[in-house]
Structure formats: structure tokens, C-alpha cells
Amino acid sequence: MSSKFVIKGGNRLTGKVKIGGAKNSALKLMAAALLTEEPTTLTNVPIITDVTIMAAVLERLGVVVSYSGPDTVDIKPGNSLYAEAPYELVSQMRASIIVLGPLLARLGRARVAMPGGCNIGSRKIDMHIRGLEALGARIEVGHGFIEAVSEKLAGSKIALDYPSVGATENLLMAATLAKGVTTIDNVAREPEIVDLANFLNKMGAKIEGAGTPTMRIEGVGSLHGVEYAVMPDRIEAGTLLVAGAITGGDVVIKDAIPKHLELVISKLKNTGATVTISGNKEIRVKGGSEINPIDIATLPYPGFPTDLQTQFMALLSIAHGTSIITENIFENRFMFVNELNRMGSDIRTEGRHAIIKGISKLMGAPVTAPDLRGGAALAVAGLAAEGVTEVLDVYHIDRGYQNFEHKLKAIGADIERIGEKEPSNALKVVGNR
Ligand code: UD1
């Protein structure tokens, strides 16, 4: 049986809490390490289930992955890689599709199972495929696999229909070893893209324009291994800021990058919280005496992140008035609403809109995490609820938050995990580590 969190709500969170490395960067940097036969060392890696799954994917490709410290992962790709990422691993995490570009660039072929992963929408990969075709790959999709072959990728001009994070990353990685220059228009501008470009440039790639809508990549003959620290996780930081605000607490987030959270901080201030930035790595949130209703629409960066939409909905569920949240990125990101309503909230969804009528208090209840961010939001709601909240299926939360309950406990939350943290299925596939 999956473990669960038991949370006694009502404690005001106070104290300092350190942010770990970003899940959504670490996974891509691990895949990018495939682009060279030389060893790479990543530090500030969050030890979460999704990282374990990516490590298992790399091992199945013939890479030696080991841990030389609590947050340090050594990746030794060597020169004889397999080109196939199997279904039993890819189905556990959609982000595994990110090995497609690096494998193709390095080996001239790749066979990757069609992804499964977080149950938050259809999450298509058409732009990944069209972009790789523009670089000269021949791609066939069938029997549950994507098969790509190419003699030598060649630089090209690509324009994405939409600034997809995953498509931008796959194409960026493939283009680093392509012959000639690639320009990609309408790319994603998320900080994780900039982190990946910085990492690739350190490996010897020639990338310009990361963080802007157009990137220019001049292909190079080969890349080399490096040591690199993963950027801080802005979504973990945002989640803990909301936890501070919803409990009327006083919490300092350490080792975050405030610039990555500008809009999030501004929205938090609009709810009545006081947010101050000290130095360039600490953010302090003090919950207000009451929570103001606000409207939020999720958008690609620098817009409001879809990965923090659920946590903000938990906060707004106890605002004084009605808020509207519009989810523009993923169609199924309201799955946790029914669970939150079991805690007494008054939220109605209509298509991509959620209408949140603030109530005075949430009531503790048994609820089930439907996905990673929905699960985190239910736990955050439990911190402010009257009585006991049990959050079931915590394995969803473990995919993306390292030591979630320990970090919350350290700043005063009454939260316990009941049952063992399950080892990921990935470990069962490749053996224990
Ligand atoms: C990444 C993040 C995820 C975050 C999301 C948006 C990782 C591991 N995950 O997901 O946490 O919520 O960015 O910030 O980094 N789409 C297409 N065709 C494509 C690709 C995408 O239609 O070829 C659509 C998707 O179905 C989705 C939207 O574009 O509706 C956004 O997807 P994308 O930006 O690619 O997100 P991910 O990379 O999957």
C-alpha cells in the first residue's frame, strides 16, 4: 500500500527552509550528459523518484550512474550506448522522452517508447517530432514506439507552434551536435531552459539566446564532460511560500532565485501576504491576517507557472471573496479540485476555469493525491485545515519533492508519513541501488 501523510492542521509555520535542486532541470541535464562519452558530475540534484527513474533510463541505455554524495550524481556514458529506452521505464515518467534528441545526435538512431507519466492531460509530442525531422531525422511512430534515424543531423530553421518546454529542450540538445547552424523561434523561456543551455555551453556547445524567444545553436563536433550544479527548484520554493502564507506563518526560503518567482511573489503579495527578498537568495513570506481573492491565468514563463496553480488554489479556497483561476497549459490540472472540495472548499470548474468562492475554514478530511502538484496542494491545504487531513497516494508527491514532510516539520508543521516510502518501480526494473 502507498504511504500517506497525516497532517494536523492549524500550526503557524515559522523558520528557515532550504530549497533543493530543480527537478525539471536535473532530469534534462542527466539526459544531456548522453551527448558526450566523457563523465559528467551533477551536484545539487534532488533525490526524488523522477530522478531515480531517469537514472534507471540512463542505466538501461548502458550508462553507469552512481551517487558520490547526498546530492551528487556521477554519469559515465562511455562509448557503447544502446539506442532503446524501454516502455517499462518511459511509461513511468513522460520526461523520459527527453533522451530522444541526445541519443539521435550521439548515435544517429533512437527508439523510445511513447511516454506515459503524470496524468494531467494528453501531453502531445508532435513538436518534438516535427523539429527533429527538420534537423534531418526520419521518424516513424508505431507499435508504441518512436523510432528515429539520421546519418548526421543538419542545422535548420525551426519555428515552434507553441513554446513547449520539452520540445525546446529536445531540439536544443539535438542541435548542439548537428552540422551547421540551427535557429529555433518561439522557444520556451523557462529558467530550466537557461540552465540546460548553460550546462551545454559548459560542455562546449555554442548556444545563444537562451531565455529569449529565439535561440541560435552552432553545431560542434563533440562535447566534453563537466561538473555542474543544478539550479534551485522554483516550484518547491513557491510551494513552501504558499505553505507559509496559508498558515499565517513567517517563513524564510533559502537558496532560491527570487528572479525566477517574480510573478508568483507579486500574486502572493496581492493575496495580502508580505514578501521580502534579502540578498539574492532568500525570500521571506509573512501571512496576512486575511487572504484577498485574486485571479490567476497560467501561461508559459514568464507567465504564472502551471506547476504552482494548484497550491495557489488551496490558498484562495480560504480567501475573503471569489477568485478565478484559468489553466491554459494542461487540460486535466483540476483533478485535485474534487478532493479539495471534500475538505469543504467551494470550487466549481468550467472548462479551463475554476471559480473559487472563499470559505472561512477548510476541514480536515481523507483525500487522495491525483498527481504531483495536486498532491502537494492537498498537503498545503491540510496545514491550514481544522482537524486531521490524511493525504493518500503520497508517491505522487515523492516524484517531485525531496523530504517534503521533513522540510515542513522543521518549520513547525504537524505532519507524519504513515507507511514506508515505496521504492520506485524503476528500481525494481534495474535492481536496487
Ligand atoms: C514541462 C514540465 C512541467 C511543466 C510544463 C509547463 C518537465 C519534466 N515538466 O512539461 O512540470 O508543467 O513544462 O511549464 O520539465 N504540447 C504539444 N505538442 C508538443 C509538446 C507539447 O501540443 O509537441 C502541449 C502539451 O500537450 C501541453 C503544452 O504543450 O498542453 C505544454 O507542454 P510542454 O511545455 O511541452 O510541457 P512539458 O515539457 O511536458
Labels describing this entry:
4-stranded mixed beta sheet, UDP-n-acetylglucosamine1-carboxyvinyl-transferase, Chain, disordered C terminus, 433 residues, binds uridine-diphosphate-N-acetylglucosamine, alpha/beta, 30% helix, 2 domains
Summarize the structure.
By secondary structure, the protein is of the alpha/beta class.
Percent of residues in helices comes to 25-40%
Number of helices: 15
CATH superfamily of the largest domain: Enolpyruvate transferase domain
The average pLDDT value, as a whole number, equals: 94
CATH architectural group of the largest domain? Alpha-beta prism
Shape: globular
Structure characterization notes:
- This protein has two domains: 4-20 and 233-422, Enolpyruvate transferase domain (UDP-n-acetylglucosamine1-carboxyvinyl-transferase, Chain); 23-229, UDP-n-acetylglucosamine1-carboxyvinyl-transferase, Chain, CATH 3.65.10.
- The protein is of the alpha/beta class.
- The protein is built from 15 helices and 24 strands.
- Helix content is 30%, strand content 24%.
- The strands form six sheets. It has a four-stranded mixed beta sheet, covered by helices on one side.
- It starts with a strand and ends with a helix.
- The structure holds uridine-diphosphate-N-acetylglucosamine.
- Uridine-diphosphate-N-acetylglucosamine is lined by residues 24, 27, 95, 121-128, 162, 164-167, 188, 306-307, 329-330.
